Structures are given as C-alpha cells and as structure tokens.
Amino acid sequence: MSMSMLFLVMLVGVAATFYFCRQRSLSLASELGGIRHLHSLPVFYGVQAALWCAIPCLLIFGLWVVFDDAIIRELTLQYLTEEQRSLSANELQLLLSTIESITTGSSTVNDPQLIAISQHIVDFRSVSNLALSITVVCSLVGLSFWAWFKLKPENKARSNVERCFMLFLLLCSTLAIFTTVGIVFSVIFESIRFFQIVPIQEFIFGTQWSPQLSIRADQVGSSGAFGAVPLFTGTLLISAIAMLVAVPTGLMTAIYLSEYASSRVRSVVKPILEILAGIPTVVYGFFAALTIAPMIKNGLHGLGLDIAFLGVSIGPLEVSGESALAAGLVMGVMIIPFVSSLSDDVINAVPQSLRDGAYGLGSTQSETIKKVIFPAALPGIVGAILLAVSRAIGETMIVVMAVGTAAKLTFNPLESVTTVTVQMTTLLIGDHEFDSAKTLAAFALGLVLFIITLGLNFIALNIVKKYREQYD
Amino acid sequence: MNNSVTTESIAPLASEKTPEKAKTSNVITEENSDAYTTVGQAFSENAKMSMRNVNVFYDEKQAIYDVNLDIGTNEVVAMIGPSGCGKSTFLRCLNRMNDTIDTCKVTGKFLLEDQDINDRKMDVVPLRARVGMVFQKPNPFPKSIYDNVAYGARIHGLADRKSDLDDIVETSLQKAGLWNEVKDRLQQPGTSLSGGQQQRLCIARTIAVSPEVILMDEPCSALDPIATARIEELIDELSQNYTIAIVTHSMQQAARVSHRTAYFHLGKLIEVNETEKVFTNPDHGLTEAYITGRFG
C-alpha cells in the first residue's frame, strides 16, 4: 500500500469513527431521554473518539517513517563484505548511494554483489511497507472499537477535547521556540569550529577582512584575514546613515499624523506609509543602485568631488558610484514607516488627560507636544528606534545591490563599505566545503549579529514595557 | 471691571419666574419641549463670566439647549445633574476645551468680562491662561513636582529670573496647600504623589499661571473622602481670590463648597439658585426630584 493510500485509509477510518461514535452517543442519549442527559454534546464524543484513533495512528506512522531508513540501512550493512564495512564514512556513504541508485534503476553498475544487495533493500522496503500498513490499519480498527465500547454518557468528552485542543496549540507554539533554539545551537556550534581555526581575538579585533585569499585548505588562518572590524564599522556606518534619515522623518510623521492631521489626511497618509513598508527590500535595492547612487555621484561630481568609481555596465545602464550614503539613505526610507507607525502608537498611548492638562494651561499644540507628549512618550519612542536599528543592522539586500562587498575600514560615507549580512551571503554563495574557515566565518558573523540584535531587541522591549506600566 | 455695562449689554432672555409658579411643573416630559425657562437666579450683578443662548451640538445631536448663566466674581458656582445632562460639556465651553473635539459645535455668547471668548478670532491660548481648568482625574505631567508647577509660568513667560519662578512655584504650592508636604522633594516626579496630592498639584499648576477663573470638572471623583475634604477646604480658600465653576456628582460637595448651584437636566439648565435654597427648598420639581434622590 502506498503512503498516500494508507493516509487516505486512515482518514476514512477516523471519519467513520467520528460518525459511529457520534451516532452511538445519540442513541445512548435517546435511551436516557435526551441530549441533556449526556455530559457533552454528541459531536464532542465523536471528536474525542476520532482523536483517540488518529493520534496513536499518526504517531506510529510518523515514527515508522523516521526510523524506517536507518533500520534498513543497518540491515543492509550485514550483506557487505568485511573490507567494504571498514571503509571510511564518506566512502561507505558513496557505496550505499550506488546501491540505492541500483534499486531505482538509474545506475548501470554491473557488480552482481551490489545488485544482490539492492534486491535485499527492495525486499526490506516492501516488508516494511506492508508491516506499516497492517500495523496502522489494525490499530485504527482496534482503537475505533475500543472508543466505541468505552463511550459512556458520563464521559467528559467536552473537556477532553478542550485539553487536546490546548495541547495542539502548545505544540504549535513550541515549534517556533524549538526552531529558535535549533538555530541558535547550530550557529553556536559552527562558530566554535570557526574559532578553533581563527582565534576569537583576531576575529573580533582584526582590521583586515579578506576571506577570499585562502585558496588551499592548509593556508587557512595563515593567509586569509578574518578581522571583522571593517564589517562592523561598515554596518554601523550604513545603519547610522539610515537612522539619521528614518528617525527624524519617522518621528515627525508620527507627530503630524497623531496630533495635527485631520482624519481625512490620516486615512490617506497611513495606508501609503504602509505600502512603503510592504515594498520588498530588493526593490529598494534597485532604487538605491540605479537611482540614488548615480544621483549622489553626479551631484558630488558637480560639486567637484569624486568618489570611488566602480564602473559596471548592465545593458544601457551604467551603475556606478557605490557608496554607503546611497544604501543608508534608501535603507532610511525603508525604515521610516517602521519608526513612524511604532511612534504613532506610542504617542497615541499618551493619555488624553495629559493633553487636556497642557491645553488647559494655555499651551499651544507644539508646546504641548514638545514639553508634555514627547517627554511622556520618549521611552516608547526610544524602544521603537532601537527596534528600527536592529532592523537596519539585519538588512542585506539594499547593501548588496548598492554598496558591494569591498571591506574597507572607513567612516567616509562616500566610500564603498560592506556589512556583516552582505559578507555572510557572499561567504555562503556557491559550492564550499562546510568545514573551511571561509564558510564557518559566516556562522561566526551570524552569531555576533544575532547577539547584537537580540541585545537591542531585549533592551527595546524592556523600555517599551516599562513605559506601558507607567499609564496602565 | 465693568460689570454693569456687561449685564446691560446682554438682555436676559429668560425673565425670572416666581418660585410658586415654577414648582408646579413637576413633569419630566414638559422639559423635553424645546421652549423652557430656567427658574431661579441665573444672573449676577457682578458677573465675571456671562453665558447667553448657549447651544452645543455633537454632530447632529444637541447636548445643551439654550442655556443662560452668569458666574459672579469670586463666586463658586456648582453644576449638578444626572450623568449625560451636559454639565461637563458646558464647563468645557468656558475655556474652549471643546475645540479639541472635532464634532463639537458651540453657539452662543460667552463673555469673560466684556470679551466674547466663543469668537472664532479669539486666541484660545491666552484665554486658557485666564480660565484655568482642573480635571476629573489628576493628570500631573511626567515631570518633577517643580516642573509641573513651573510649566505654565514658563510657557507664558511669567518669570524673568529663576528666583521669580521659584517664588511662583512656592506660592502656588502654598495656595494649593501642598507646600509643606512636598517642599523637600520638589525634584521628584509628580506622579510619585498620592492621588489627593496629585490633584492638589494640578490645582497648584493651574494657579501658577494666575488665572481669573478656575474650572473644575469633578475634581474629587477619583479621590478618597479625606483627600476630598482637603480639596473642598482648598476650594473654599481659593474662592477669596478666584472665580470658580465646579461640576460635581456629589450633592453634598456642591452644598459644602458652592455659593450658587445650577441644576442641569437633559442638556437644559433647569434651575439656578443660592445653594442653600436649592438643597432645602428648590423652585423646580425636577431639582427637588434629583436632590431627594428620586432619579439620577
């Protein structure tokens, strides 16, 4: 029986269990003189029975699928010769995949021993498949009858279903947590491997970044330079430019929208800002690379300044003058809606009574905002800004397209710099062995970035929380 | 002040009725008719503020119907009435606080001395410095006690030197009866005070800009009885120097602090009289029904 067929059978079985148990509860109810004599509504008895069938069957099914391959592999090993078994892990893997390809008929290897083994694998698979089908169908039928016989009017079906629902929700929420934990651990372990090759102090304090230099594996660490300082200064520079654009603009927008704008203006401006937030960052990247960067270059050229020129021709368009400024400006525009909508919420959360109090003393609107509302909302605004900063630090696409990958240690916004995230993508693009310092460096960068943004988010959320408590 | 001119320049719309005649109208439905007259003494010889033909609308819904009322100089006028009767709305008209509500439309004359404050050309900023307001819930700014009181004086440029500002803060806090409690901790946040202290801080803040009239919108409704008693004493002291209009839900409070009491019902000013008279021998049947607790 194929997997999908088996699945269909399970579905039908569960549906039948639901139907019959519901019917049984109805007939029990009519014997007792009405549904009100049951503990729960008939539908709950049906759902409860269906769950009792479905959950164990799915568990069996899932475990079987997970362990199936490993067991068959172990069984296959016994048919290999002594020297085949003593091969190194990589070569053994190669041999096994050859056998595997014989089973699917895609290999033309004509070794009779391997063909015999592949025949064994096919047999094991069919046995396993049959066994699974039988086990699942038997347990399905058994559980259905058990559920049918166990059904009593005083069963607390409703609360059992409730509990199952709660467990299901819990499972869903822990999925995200486990994923996070998994990511953190994988990043940490790979980083540890990286720090075994490159000393941690060199990584954190080194001012040279040129991972491309390490061509041969035995040269790693001696010739390749893994000083992350230029990357972090680059990130800092671009984020700082972005915040210089986004914070004042976003904040003023928020103040205008929440304090001055008539509801008509607000109903037009807010959705447009939200559109800005919905533009994919890669599109911002185009904009930065094709419009802003040349504009800056030409503008500065007109002023008699010349900047790093990296002439790259794409069709009729000449893209050039990659600068941190271009990326920073566009990233700033991208973050404006983020800052403005968060600050707008914070400003709106300032109680009307404070505004009334200020107006009641004869303040003008701008005095009220400057002296009362802004100070009151300040912690929340700081929180919003910190969240925006962590967003800017994590941004990749715009920088990739508008700045490039040259790791320069500079604070001149007109030069080309690179950021942590950009380096991470370039390190991992293409075919690499996963134990070279070059690819592992990406994990180390990721770890540092993760710690920074986590720290920022933690501080930001705490500030916002503290601020909330002030009025609630 | 030129009160005689002021009162003459506005012809009272409602002639004062005799109490005996008015007392007969004890039917609520009668008050729902558009034409009605306020009974009692709505007018004052020595008016600080004179309101004439006041109508207030929220969108299409009328909240105040043709109210005429004077508030005398250094007088405490209490406004009472069941919830939704328009007393707070009326109070908020007196310093144009209703401007902040988009849907609110106010018509009628509001004379502060001889100036119509409801004139669209009237600058509300200096007006609100002259007519201060204390709100239902204490709303100190998230600043220090000192800065809370100094706020108004600063924005209106009332002090040229730091020492002047210190004086203003000290006298205002003294007038509000808070000085002794906070003089050693002026730099602490205003929100660290207790509810009653916060409300007195808000009163001090209002006094600091030297208003002529103080409006109080249920100033004690968020306070416990002891703090309430303290505020009531304060209102009594303040009435030596200020004209006060107070909205209250507590009839005992109105009886304790006010000179005259105005009874509002469904947006109409039913009766205005000396406080003692309102609470012992009201002219109007509705007032009597309200103060004896038959509704509201």
How would you explain this protein's 3D organization?
Chain A is mainly α. Helix content of chain A is 75%, strand content 2%. Chain A has helices at 3-32, 42-77, 82-85, 89-103, 112-150, 157-197, 200-205, 229-260, 263-278, 281-302, 324-349, 352-360, 365-394, 397-402, 420-428, 437-471, and strands at residues 209-210, 225-226, 312-314, 317-319. In chain A, strands 1-2 form a two-stranded antiparallel ribbon. In chain A, a hairpin with a 2-residue loop joins strand 3 and strand 4 (317-319). The longest helix of chain A is centred in the middle third of the chain and has 41 residues, at 157-197. The two termini of chain A are 61 Å apart. The relative contact order of chain A is 0.09. With 296 residues, chain B is α/β, with parallel strands linked by helices. Chain B has a domain at 3-7 and 36-138 and 213-291: 3-Layer(aba) Sandwich (Rossmann fold). Helix content of chain B is 36%, strand content 23%. Chain B has a seven-stranded mixed beta sheet with strand order 1-11-10-4-9-8-7, with helices on both faces. In chain B, helix 7 packs across helix 9 (195-207). Chain B starts with a helix and ends in a 5-residue tail after the last helix. Residues 1-33 of chain B have low confidence and may be disordered. The A-B interface holds A 262-263, 351, 353-364, 367, 371-372, 375-376, 470 and B 95, 97, 100, 102, 124-129, 132-135, 137, 139-143, 151-152, 155-156, 191, 202, 205-206, 209.
